[in-house]
Write a structure and sequence with these properties.
This protein has about 525 residues and is α/β, with parallel strands linked by helices. About 50% of the residues lie in helices and about 10% in strands. The strands form 4 sheets. Strands 1, 2, 3, 4, 8, 12 and 13 form a 7-stranded parallel beta sheet that branches. A 4-stranded antiparallel beta sheet has the order 6-5-7-9. Strands 15-14-16 form a 3-stranded mixed beta sheet, covered by helices on one side. Helix 5 runs antiparallel to helix 6 and helix 14 packs parallel to helix 17. The longest helix is centred in the C-terminal third of the chain and has 31 residues. The protein binds 5'-O-[(L-methionyl)-sulphamoyl]adenosine. The site of 5'-O-[(L-methionyl)-sulphamoyl]adenosine has 20 residues, from strand 2, helix 1, helix 7 and strand 12. Is required not only for elongation of protein synthesis but also for the initiation of all mRNA translation through initiator tRNA(fMet) aminoacylation. It is an enzyme of class 6 (ligase). This is Methionine--tRNA ligase.
Length: about 525
């Protein structure tokens, strides 16, 4: 497994990437799924106290973009500029994505370095001139092997007819790299995850690799081949290199050394081979260190098919955030679908989880505790006066939840499992309150009764303090509200500075903290039809 970074100066950052998205259309749920996952992963590592770098961006060259721009009567560059500024970047900020950089493949910091990289491979004899013909899917921007096609001529991903392409191209000697790649997978068993993805890659490489056509001469929307500018560089070679150019490859050695290689490349399973086969081979050819992990997430499905704009099933994330809110959106897909597997989205399932897990289990807990501290102690958090076994059980439950969540989310990218561990603790605290019934204890005004009431409410508030820390990577706006309502900041500092590894240390919230009944964390859902 890739080393998880450290704060020591000179150590390289925990570097995570998303695929760079084609800007032929606006983003849909499938794109946002990976980007939110990367955001949660990187926020988690930031809260481990690590140096982190989170990269996303857009893939702007190739035939698909060119055709879309043509159809809309604008130049490809105009089209990309418009989509990036009006659709992609605003969506990421709407979804609270805290990326450190956003790379566009039409930027000179990228195009110039790509040319140098390809020139270098050419000079090393890794690239030669040759001819190729075969079925090509413009949706995938990929030659297909005839055996992969459905009904003779349909792309298995897009279910649309492939085109026959015949070209004089430049080729990368990918076929030479099979044995070295297999050796690498063998010695790095966690390089491709999950296991199903690893098996697919092993099987593919064991069959033997063909050389890869890396240039196109039938259109010009791409980066020119430096020694033969009638050709443009194949969009996938151009695109993969974003992970290097964005962190200073060939231009800022200090930044590159402090960041490279990526610890995790998040990808959809349809683009696994590019990342787990072609990309490491390109890096081997150039002598660069290889990434730590390629993690392939599954597809969001609609009606049994991959959700996609080309299939007219692409749903805009805003249709859901308008109804459920941004944090619930971030929560839902990671909680409901095991990362790495396909999953279907359903409005009913989302509503059910919103109501039972977010509004009832979590939101109500926060508002009940704040209301009781207000009512019985004038909003000043009381002391943990007389803790007993029931309180110890809560502290133990927290320790277990925090450890499990840290391993599952931070190391294994098992977001569903990690979030479930935190919510098991939320349920435990609810159960504790039901058993202890502080509203009954409040009727006992003796010193012992007051001490018992103080203990129960302290325990519940301190549990919420830890829950805010642990859920902050998933639901930052909600947890910020909770942090404010617990009056934690003046004593403990900003929420984002709280360490996940320290979350379970009991007794951090001091007596006297000003607890206020803040906004409702998860308001009742409106009827979507009204
Ligand atoms: N531009 C390339 C990636 C280059 S990375 C060097 C590309 N772009 S894409 O916009 O078509 O897709 C980007 C990502 O979105 C892929 O990982 C793809 O799997 C993902 N998704 C697109 N539709 C999806 C779903 N319905 N569900 C989950 N992810 C899906 O490929």
């Amino acid at each position: 497994m890739a080393a998880t970074g450290s704060t020591a100066a000179g150590e390289s950052a925990f570097y995570v990437t998303t695929p760079i998205y084609y800007v032929n259309d606006a983003p849909h749920l499938g794109h946002a799924y990976t980007t939110v996952a990367g955001d949660v992963l990187t926020r988690w590592h930031r809260q481990r106290g690590e140096k982190v770098w989170y990269l996303t961006g857009t893939d702007e060259h190739g035939q698909k973009i060119m055709r879309t721009a043509d159809a809309n009567g604008v130049t490809p560059q105009q089209w990309c500029d418009r989509l990036v500024e009006e659709a992609w970047k605003p969506l990421w900020s709407h979804l609270s994505i805290a990326n450190d950089d956003f790379i566009r493949t039409t930027e000179p910091r990228h195009t110039e370095r790509v040319q140098e990289f390809v020139q270098d491979l050419y000079d090393k004899g890794e690239i030669y001139r040759g001819g190729y013909e075969g079925p090509y899917c413009v949706g995938c921007e990929e030659y297909k092997s005839p055996g992969d096609l459905l009904e003779g001529d349909l792309c298995p991903v897009h279910k649309r007819q492939v085109e026959w392409l015949k070209e004089e191209n430049y080729f990368f000697r990918l076929s030479d790299y099979g044995p070295r790649l297999l050796e690498f997978y063998e010695s790095h068993p966690d390089f491709v995850q999950p296991a199903s993805a690893r098996n697919e890659v092993l099987q593919f490489v064991r069959q033997g690799l063909q050389d890869l056509s890396i240039s196109r001469s039938t259109f010009d929307w791409g980066i020119p081949i430096p020694w033969d500018p009638k050709h443009v560089i194949y969009v996938w070679i151009d695109a993969l290199l974003n992970y290097a150019t964005a962190v200073g490859y060939g231009s800022d050695q200090a930044k590159f050394d402090a960041t490279w290689p990526a610890n995790v490349h998040l990808v959809g399973k349809d683009i696994l081979r590019f990342h787990a086969v072609i990309w490491p081979a390109m890096l081997m050819a150039n002598g660069l260190p290889l990434p730590g992990r390629v993690f392939a997430n599954g597809w969001l499905m609609v009606g049994g098919e991959k959700m996609s704009k080309s299939n007219l099933t692409g749903i805009s994330p805003r249709q859901l955030t308008e109804h459920f809110g941004v944090d619930a959106y971030r929560y839902y897909f990671l909680r409901a679908i095991p990362f790495g597997q396909d999953g279907s989205f359903s409005w009913e399932d989302f509503s059910a989880r919103y109501t039972s897990e977010l509004a009832n289990d979590f939101g109500n807990l926060a508002s009940r505790v704040a209301a009781m501290v207000g009512k019985y102690f004038d909003g000043a958090l009381p002391e943990l006066a007389a803790a007993g076994p029931a309180e110890q059980a809560v502290a133990d439950g927290l320790a277990e939840a925090a450890t499990r969540a840290d391993t599952l989310i931070g190391d294994n990218l098992d977001f569903a499992g990690g979030i479930a561990a935190i919510f098991d603790f939320v349920k435990q605290v609810n159960g504790y309150l039901t058993e202890q019934a502080p509203w009954k204890v409040a009727k006992d005004e003796s010193p012992q009764g007051r001490a018992r009431l103080a203990t129960i409410l302290y325990t519940a508030a301190e549990s919420l303090r830890a829950i805010a820390v642990l859920l902050n990577p998933v639901m930052p706006a909600t947890c910020a509200k909770l942090w404010a309502s617990l009056g934690a900041e003046p004593h403990l500092g900003p929420l984002a500075d709280q360490r996940v590894g320290d979350a379970a240390r009991w007794g951090q919230l001091p007596a006297g903290a000003q607890v206020t009944k803040g906004e409702i964390l998860f308001p009742r859902l409106e009827d979507p039809k009204s």
